């Protein structure tokens, strides 16, 4: 019988964020695939987990390491995948191993836990009903600006990972591409001693980003949605006024045609008159 590949989330700072289930799975694993064997060795020691065999697995050696890990799984071993911090596969290696295991009919079991994106989002104060995880943008200015421009009309909260030394350039480009007034949050050093949430408009944060050190997530509120009603009503009202209807009749008729309330239609009439 094939073994199991467990995708084990580990803390992003505070060791107390390890779960009981993660501890058990790490103890039961015959091999742990990890980005950096020294880093994971240290973590296991701090967590009091006896060190099983550690295999380094990262983007640059995935091709070489995949066959060995898949063989172990097919022989029935319990393999755990961890990254240096947080959830494997989230801006970290993991995807190719998960896909290869699925292709071989191996069970892949997620062991959920810390993830910087969700940790930042849930306390950001920005809408959480819809969000887009963007992760790291291209490092070069031109690529970053292109990527930001493509996100300008996204209505959901945007979640970025960024390194501290690119933060200022990122915020300046984001303010230019998405708008200075967008609400934004810089979430720094999550779950650690100097955890900080810095909230403000993109323009304000860009002018004063605060401490530019440590690990950080930047969140930006989505593009304001244009109520289709507002656009339609104004167009309909303009046409009706041009036909010669009196303002109140135009408002009444526009409300009926568009389904907007009378107040909204009348406000559109007043706005048009003011513009004229
Ligand atoms: N797999 C990880 C996860 O689940 O969040 C992400 C790994 S990615 C290589 C590292 C990036 O995640 C950092 O550059 C930073 O943007 C974010 N990050 C990780 N830990 C963080 C923390 N404690 N506070 C703020 N951001 C963090």
How do the helices and strands line up, and which of them pair or pack?
Blueprint: E1 4-8, H1 20-28, E2 31-34, H2 37-47, E3 53-56, H3 62-74, E4 78-81, H4 95-103, E5 107-111, H5 116-122, E6 131-136, H6 141-150, E7 157-162, H7 167-178, E8 183-188, E9 196-201, H8 202-207, E10 216-220, H9 228-242, H10 247-258, H11 262-275
Parallel strand pairs: 1-4, 1-5, 2-3, 2-4, 6-7
Antiparallel strand pairs: 7-10, 8-9, 8-10
Helix pairs in contact: 3-4, 6-7, 9-10, 9-11, 10-11
The chain binds S-adenosylmethionine.
Overview of this structure, please?
Helix 3 packs across helix 4, helix 6 runs parallel beside helix 7 (167-178) and helix 9 (228-242) packs across helix 11 (262-275). The longest helix is centred in the C-terminal third of the chain and has 15 residues, at 228-242. A 5-stranded parallel beta sheet has the order 3-2-4-1-5, with helices on both faces. A 5-stranded mixed beta sheet has the order 6-7-10-8-9. The chain has helices at 20-28, 37-47, 62-74, 95-103, 116-122, 141-150, 167-178, 202-207, 228-242, 247-258, 262-275, and strands at residues 4-8, 31-34, 53-56, 78-81, 107-111, 131-136, 157-162, 183-188, 196-201, 216-220. The chain is built from 11 helices and 10 strands. It folds into 3 domains: 4-114, Cobalt-precorrin-4 Transmethylase, domain 1, CATH 3.40.1010; 139-220, Methyltransferase, Cobalt-precorrin-4 Transmethylase, Domain 2 (2-Layer Sandwich); 230-275. Helices cover 43% and strands 18% of the residues. It is elongated and about 85 Å long. The mean pLDDT is 94. Helix 2 (37-47) links the parallel strand 2 (31-34) and strand 3 (53-56). By secondary structure, the protein is α/β, with parallel strands linked by helices. The site of S-adenosylmethionine (SAM) has 23 residues, from helix 5, strand 7 and strand 10.
């Amino acid at each position: 019988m094939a073994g199991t590949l467990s995708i084990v989330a580990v803390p992003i700072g505070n060791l107390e964020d390890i779960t009981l289930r993660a501890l058990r799975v790490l103890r039961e694993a015959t091999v742990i695939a990890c980005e950096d064997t020294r880093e994971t060795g240290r973590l296991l020691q701090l967590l009091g987990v006896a060190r099983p065999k550690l295999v380094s697995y990262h983007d640059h050696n995935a091709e070489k390491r995949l066959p060995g890990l898949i063989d172990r799984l097919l022989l029935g071993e319990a393999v755990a995948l961890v990254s240096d911090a947080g959830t494997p596969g989230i801006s970290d290696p993991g995807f190719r191993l998960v896909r290869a295991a699925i292709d071989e009919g191996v069970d892949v079991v997620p062991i959920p836990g810390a993830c910087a994106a969700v940790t930042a989002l849930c306390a950001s104060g920005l809408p959480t009903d819809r969000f887009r995880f963007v992760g790291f943008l291209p490092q070069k200015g031109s690529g970053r600006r292109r990527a930001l421009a493509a996100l300008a009309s996204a209505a959901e909260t945007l979640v970025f990972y960024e390194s501290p030394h690119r933060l200022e350039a990122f915020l300046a480009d984001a303010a230019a591409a998405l708008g200075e007034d967008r609400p934004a949050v810089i979430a720094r050093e999550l779950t650690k001693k100097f955890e900080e949430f810095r909230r403000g408009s993109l323009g304000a944060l860009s002018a004063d980003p605060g401490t530019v050190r440590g690990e950080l997530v930047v969140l930006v509120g989505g593009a304001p949605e244009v109520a289709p009603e507002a656009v339609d009503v104004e167009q309909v009202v303009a046409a009706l006024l041009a036909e010669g209807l009196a303002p109140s009749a135009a408002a009444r008729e526009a409300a009926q045609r568009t389904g907007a309330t009378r107040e909204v239609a009348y406000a559109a009439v007043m706005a048009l008159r003011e513009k004229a």
